[in-house]
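Dear colleague,

Thank you for sharing your sequence with our group. We've completed the structure prediction you requested, and as agreed, I am returning the results in plain text so they can be pasted directly into your records. Please verify that the sequence below matches your submission; if there's any discrepancy, let me know and we will rerun it promptly.
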Amino acid sequence: MKVLVIGPGGREHAIVRSLLKDPNVSEVHSAPGNAGIAKLVPTYAIDGNDPAAVTALATKLAVDLVVVGPEAPLAAGVSDAVREAGIPVFGPSKAAAQLEASKAFAKEVMAEAGVPTAMARVATNAEEAADALDTFGAPHVVKDDGLAAGKGVVVTNNREEALAHAQTCFDAGGSVVIEEYLDGPEVSLFVLCDGRTTVPLSPAQDFKRIYDNDEGPNTGGMGAYTPLDWAPEGLVQEVIDRVAQPTVDEMASRGTPFVGVLYCGLALTSRGTRVIEFNARFGDPETQAVLARLKTPLGALMLAAAKGELDQAEELRWSKDSAVAVVVAAENYPDTPRTGDRIRGLNKVDALEGVHVIHAGTKLDEEGRIISAGGRVLAVVALGTDLVEARERAYDGVELVQLDGGQFRTDIAGKAARGEIHVSSTATGSIPNVKA
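Please find the predicted structure tokens below.
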């Protein structure tokens, strides 16, 4: 089959790479892609957020499946337009993508479905925000209600900082969701959905803040690893039973079936597993690590989801290896990243055993050289027999990347590799069977 992948980032490069390994896939195309994707498949310089442009390209290429990677085209209704043209799509409709596009909507769905999550209030002005902050106390969690590329959340003990973030959102015409703080380690679980059936992938953990030891502002993600040997036994099934399936059932009952990936961002708290947030697509950079271990053909899985046939899909098979992805970001990320810098050393990285480079914010200059074109420039992904070996290989690769001003965290998967992550004995198995 022919597949068109929409998106410009690392997640899409990882998806393209996996699709090319699927014997069922004869052709892969990408729009707009990046420098790394362009080395593998044909790319097209269209606006991936434009439903008409994507539909026209998919029709012209006569593809059998369109995979929508990022959140923005989903929120713009790209999936709806392509489906109306009769082409199967892996990615939720605009209505279903509200699970990510509006945190207030997601809270409403979770409440109806009885999904355990943080207590929260929606605020539309400074007075409401101040009242909510005082109700929940510190640490304060303030989330922009709309899409913010992973950077719309502030977690702080400083009440004035929390109020300032809320005011910034109000000034932009938006609202905020203010929540109680959730303690405990975080887990990302991707769940493939076809509107009815749910199939979980391997859990991962990502690192959202820019600096080591989880310091500094939030980013789109600075690294990830999988599997999670420290996660409680039965966690994945618990999340399917209490989180993903009830959410998919609720969305179906509303007439807006969810097709694609439901990203469950979880906290394993002292009071049980809680949902931090939903996303309506694969997470980045967790995708880079998770797909590196997936042995089941990805194209067949995505087509089954798009056609409502996941219940007939083969059982997932995984490599026994561990995977670590370390992001190299541009200077001044996540504020206003510097772009246009030459990137060297990538061939040396790819030559390392068990290591490959996933491009994110890259493009080719007029002379065909790879230069930086975004905040998160690339990820070095490594497989190893355990996390220790995978980490060593990943950082060996990172050291070979030459990018002026490039920055990366040195502690990705470090605590897990040293056995330093501990989960409360009540982190699972204690989810209340009541509406949150």
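Summary note from our side: The domain at 2-93 is CATH 3.40.50.20 (Rossmann fold).

Kind regards,
the structure core
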